[in-house]
Design a protein that fits this description.
The chain is α/β, with parallel strands linked by helices. The chain is 42% helix and 16% strand.
Length: 250
C-alpha cells in the first residue's frame, strides 16, 4: 500500500542536530505508519550522513529512509531527488532542521483534500514569534515585495520551508522547474499560479527552539543572487520555457 504522504527533509552539514532530527522523525513516524519520511543528505562534508545512518539502522522503521549523494547541489535539488523516490499519494517538503511541528503534516493532508498546493505562511505568527534579526527581517520583506512586483505573487510568505502537493500537480510542477537554490520555492509558486492550480495558504509557526542560521546565509550576497533568480524566472516565462509541452524529467 502506498503511503498517504511522503515527506522530504533536505539536510546539509547538520551534524550538530542530526541525532535530534532523527529522533523526532522516527518517534513521529512510528505512530504514523501511513507517512513516508525521506531524509535527503545534500552532500554533507561533516558527519551528518554517518549519524543519520547509524541512528536509523538502530530503529529499523520501514517508513523512514536516508537518501544521499556525494556533492552539495542545493535545497531544490535535494527535494527533487527525494520526490523521485517518494511513493506517497501526496508529497510534502519541510526544513531539515524541523523548524515546524511535525503535527502540521496532518493539517497539510487535510488541506490537500480541497487544494492542489498548500504553502506554510509564517506572516500572521511573526509578531508573537519575534523576528530573527532586523536586517534579515528587512531583507525578507524586501524580497516579498520584489516577488509581488516582478512575478505577481500575492502570498504573504513564499519562503516558509513547509509546502505540500497532491501527486499529479507535483509531477506537473516539478517537470517545469529550473531553480534548485533559494528561488526554488518562488518558482514553484509562480508555476502553480501559471498552471491554474488551487493554492491554499496555511498559517504556521516555527517551533520556539528553532534558530535562524545567519552563519549559513550571507545576506547581501545571497540577496543579490535571489534578485537575479527572480529576473531569470520572469525571463524564462517571457521566452516560453514554462510551457508544459517542453516538459523534462524532474
Amino acid at each position: 500500500m502506498h503511503p498517504s504522504l511522503s515527506i522530504v527533509l533536505p539536510l546539509f552539514n547538520e551534524a550538530g542536530i542530526a541525532t535530534a532530527v532523527a529522533a523526532r522523525v522516527t518517534s513521529f513516524a512510528e505512530y504514523h505508519p501511513d507517512y513516508e519520511f525521506l531524509l535527503v543528505d545534500d552532500g554533507s562534508v561533516d558527519a551528518t550522513p554517518t549519524i543519520l545512518s547509524e541512528f536509523l539502522a538502530k530503529r529499523r522503521l520501514p517508513n523512514v529512509r536516508l537518501l544521499r549523494y556525494a556533492c552539495n547541489r542545493g535545497k531544490g535539488h535535494a527535494i527533487l531527488f527525494g520526490f523521485r523516490e517518494a511513493r506517497g499519494a501526496s508529497f510534502c517538503f519541510t526544513d531539515g532542521d524541523l523548524a515546524y511541528p511535525l503535527d502540521d503534516l496532518d493539517r497539510i493532508v487535510a488541506e490537500l483534500r480541497r487544494s492542489d498546493v498548500v504553502i506554510g505562511s509564517r506572516s500572521p505568527c511573526r509578531a508573537s514569534q519575534g523576528a530573527p534579526n532586523l536586517s534579515r527581517r528587512f531583507l525578507g520583506v524586501a524580497y516579498n515585495r520584489l516577488t509581488r512586483f516582478l512575478l505577481g505573487l500575492p502570498y504573504a510568505d513564499t519562503q516558509a520551508g513547509l509546502k505540500g502537493f497532491r501527486r499529479e500537480p507535483a509531477e506537473r510542477l516539478f517537470s517545469l522547474l529550473h531553480s534548485t537554490g533559494f528561488s526554488f520555492d518562488v518558482e514553484l509558486l509562480f508555476l502553480a499560479r501559471k498552471l491554474g492550480l488551487r493554492i491554499c495558504e496555511m498559517p504556521v509557526q516555527p517551533v520556539r527552539e528553532h534558530s535562524y542560521k545567519t552563519g549559513k546565509v550571507k545576506l547581501l550576497r545571497d540577496s543579490a543572487a535571489m534578485l537575479a533568480d527572480l529576473c531569470r524566472i520572469r525571463l524564462r516565462d517571457w521566452m516560453g520555457l514554462y510551457h508544459e509541452r517542453r516538459t523534462r524529467t524532474p
